[in-house]
Amino acid sequence: MTTRLRELRTRSVDDAAVALREAADAAPVFVGKPIVYNSRTAIGNPLKWGFYEEVAPGSATKTLQEGDIRFLVDHETSMPVSRSSAGTLRLVESDAGVAVDSDLNVAKSYVADLVENLRDKTITGMSFGFIVTKDEWSTIDVGTADGQTVEADLRVVREFKLLEVSAVTFPAYEDTEAGLRKMTAAIRALREGTLTDAEIEALQLAGRAAGERQPADATGATETQPVAATVPARLRFMRHDALAALMPRT
User: Fold this and answer.
1) How high is the pLDDT of residue 247?
2) Is the pLDDT of residue 238 over 70?
3) CA-CA distance, 230 to 71, in Å (whole number)?
4) How far apart are CA 111 and CA 106, in angstroms?
5) SS3 40
6) What tens digit of pLDDT does each residue of 46-61 get?
7) Model's pTM, two decimal places?
8) Would 32 disulfide with which of 114, 126, 154, 229, CB 3.0-4.6 Å?
9) Which of 53-67, 164-178, 215-229, 230-244 has the highest mean pLDDT?
10) What does the DSSP assignment read for 156-212?
11) Beta 19-23 vs 26-36: how paired, if at all?
12) Of the candidates 141, 138, 146, the residue with the CA atom closest to the CA atom of residue 220
């Protein structure tokens, strides 16, 4: 299945391993891990209207080989920090996920600000903007806190186009339930082939963030559930105009 919605996922400081590598005789370097494989994430409330999601190992292999990826601050295309084609951004895939290593040119004022925000831990998270090109859906059994077993949807992302990675001020945040419901309904509609081009365009132009941090107890899942859904994540629709410059021309 190929989707055309631009999505974001955000890792918390614990998952993203954000750090500033500094040496007395060298410019500072940013390191972090925006993409973690085989980590089950709750998108919305999977036991009622959301779903679980995992990013499969190897899903970034193609995009890392073919793509020209940018490192931004808070997904702002006006604040590029580095770029893979320029050799200033390095992305390495492993069985665990994708790690980044970026040069930091402090001659740019916003990069100097980023360095200071990293030093004082104001910025602690990472996120990545992407388009899913292959995914698989299945139904899984999930144990609830009251001892019941219920069914939930699981989405496994098998391949995606990576547009950018970002250092982010807010690693995870809560939005309205209405926004989350709209987002999950759109992804389901894409899965079923019932979302029109006009609806896709309207969602992307809206540019309204829709995501929620979901600890296990918020969904009713027990801590003994396989790969418990305790990993914080954020998903939102990206503005079409904001990311247009990142898309390959055809």
Assistant:
1) 45
2) no
3) 26
4) 5
5) coil
6) 888 888 999 999 999 9
7) 0.71
8) 126
9) 53-67
10) EEEEEEEEEEEEES-S-----HHHHHHHHHHHHHHHHT---HHHHHHHHHH--B---
11) antiparallel
12) 146
Identity of the residue numbered 107: A
Q: How far apart are the first and last CA of the chain?
A: 21
Q: Rounded to whole angstroms, how far apart are CA atoms 246 and 60? A: 17
Q: What is the mean pLDDT of residues 147-176?
A: 83
Confidence of residue 118 (pLDDT cuts 50, 70, 90): very high
β-pairing, 70-73 with 51-55? unpaired
Task: Please list, in sequence order, all residues whose beta carbon lies within 8 angstroms of the beta carbon of residue 24, skipping any fewer than 6 positions away.
Answer: none
> What are the structure tokens assigned to 193, written together?
């082939």
DSSP letter at 115 equals H
- CB atoms under 10 Å from CB of 33, counted, come to 20
Token couple for 131: 């388009």
Put residue 220 in one of left, alpha, beta given phi > 0 → left and psi -120 to 50 → alpha.
left
* Rounded CA separation 55/232 (Å): 14
Q: What is the pLDDT of residue 222?
A: 37
Is beta strand 125-143 parallel, antiparallel or unpaired with respect to 149-168?
Answer: antiparallel
Q: What count of other Cβ atoms lies within 10 Å of the Cβ of residue 76?
A: 12
CB 18 within 8 A of CB 114: no
